[in-house]
TrEMBL record:
Swiss-Prot/TrEMBL keywords: Coiled coil, Nucleus, Repeat, Ribosome biogenesis, rRNA processing, WD repeat
WD repeat residue numbers: 45-67, 67-111, 116-157, 184-224, 233-265, 269-311
Name the record gives this protein: Ribosome biogenesis protein WDR12 homolog
Described function: Required for maturation of ribosomal RNAs and formation of the large ribosomal subunit.
Species this chain originates from: Saccoglossus kowalevskii
Location of the protein in the cell: Nucleus, Nucleolus; Nucleus, Nucleoplasm
Gene from which this protein is expressed: LOC100368209
Keyword rRNA processing part of the UniProt annotation: yes
């Protein structure tokens, strides 16, 4: 009370937060190399790795399928659509391309449908919009690009070889080549993270110490939020309308870009001792988020108590590169120890070691 300069006559509202059990480690999924990106959806997890592959796993740790077409490390993955039986996935790679994959859970086969070309350097991040009709990508070439997810009327780079292959099996076809719907310039350094904050709005984080908001319908830059150091990751909560950012200065910061003072940090969550490489909001709580860091920890935060994390999920063997909380019951992280680690947020079947 003294620190906040409250009068002794002031009525203070106190909110009671019920304590719940710490998330329990429930197993690890082993890759052949660093796990750079992952995202859960329903009962499956898609992951990208420095071993150049995209893999789909069940939540209990079974590798359903491995998709290999990239020629360099895979840096970003995202679900376009999780269907029964057909699902679509997009992946971005150090080979400067994004690939659209079709996976059929009944036939247990996957096909690379489309190769999205236009970036001049490594594609480090990708995000799909809420309508599942578009996705955006950010790259070390400093560019933000918008793409269509449509699998119809795709532009094919037809040559004589393609013509001769039309009658061959689908598995042998060359992927259709697609170009971006839109390219947006403005960052001075590499784009490290992208997301859709609205159907018409994209937010980007960059090594140039800025977060930028873009109107992708008009193709214009709307707003810039400036930090002290390079940004590595961002996450948006539609429940709280807040942006969370992770930075090389070891802080997680919360922003509300829709307010007049949107450039002002609402909260700083300070507890990591290394670069904060990835952040992700809870899918069903406006107050909770997780963060992963080079300090080999995954932390669970409640924004109503920002001075310290609720829990530290320690015991990881190396730097964390990616975190995900798309499945409400499961906290996920992947990193330099070549593993996806899962922590149980409520009662689920444990992962197989």
């Amino acid at each position: 009370m003294e620190e906040s300069s409250f009068s002794t006559e002031t009525v203070v509202d106190i909110e009671y937060l019920e304590k719940f059990a710490a998330p329990k480690p429930v197993g690890s999924i082993v890759h052949d190399d660093w796990v750079s990106s992952l995202q859960g959806c329903q009962d499956c997890i898609v992951s990208g790795s420095y071993d150049k592959s995209v893999r789909v796993w069940t939540v209990d740790g079974k590798n359903i399928i491995t998709m290999s077409h990239h020629t360099e490390p895979v840096k970003a993955v995202a679900w376009i659509k999780k269907g029964d039986p057909v699902s679509y996935i997009v992946s971005g790679s150090h080979d400067q391309t994004l690939l659209i994959w079709e996976w059929n859970s009944e036939t247990k086969k996957a096909e690379c449908l489309c190769s999205c070309r236009g970036h001049a350097r490594s594609v480090d991040c990708v995000a799909v919009d809420s309508t599942r009709t578009k996705f955006c990508s950010g790259s070390f070439d400093k560019m933000l690009k918008i793409w269509s997810t449509s699998t119809e009327d795709m532009e094919r780079d037809i040559d004589e070889t393609d013509k001769s292959r039309k009658k061959q099996k689908t598995d042998n076809r060359k992927p259709v080549v697609r170009t971006p719907l839109m390219t947006l310039e403005g960052h001075k350094e590499a784009i490290s993270s992208v997301l859709w904050s609205d159907v018409k709005e994209v937010c980007t984080a960059s090594w140039d110490h800025t977060l930028k908001l873009w109107d992708v319908e008009e193709g214009v830059h709307k707003q810039t939020l400036t930090g002290n150091k390079a940004f590595l990751s961002i996450s948006f909560s539609p429940l709280s309308n807040l942006l969370a950012s992770g930075s090389v200065d070891r802080h997680v910061r919360l922003w509300d870009p829709r307010t007049q003072d949107g450039a002002v940090v609402k909260h700083s969550l300070t507890n990591h001792s290394g670069w904060v490489t990835s952040v992700c909001w809870s899918p069903d709580s406006q107050y909770q988020l997780i963060s992963g860091s080079y300090d080999k920890t995954l932390k669970l935060w409640d924004t109503r108590s920002p001075r310290a994390p609720l829990y530290n999920m320690s015991g990881l063997d190396d730097r964390v590169l990616s975190v995900d909380w798309s499945i409400p019951e499961v906290l996920l992280c992947g990193g330099v120890d070549n593993c996806i680690h899962a922590f149980q947020a409520s009662s689920i079947e444990p992962l197989k070691e």
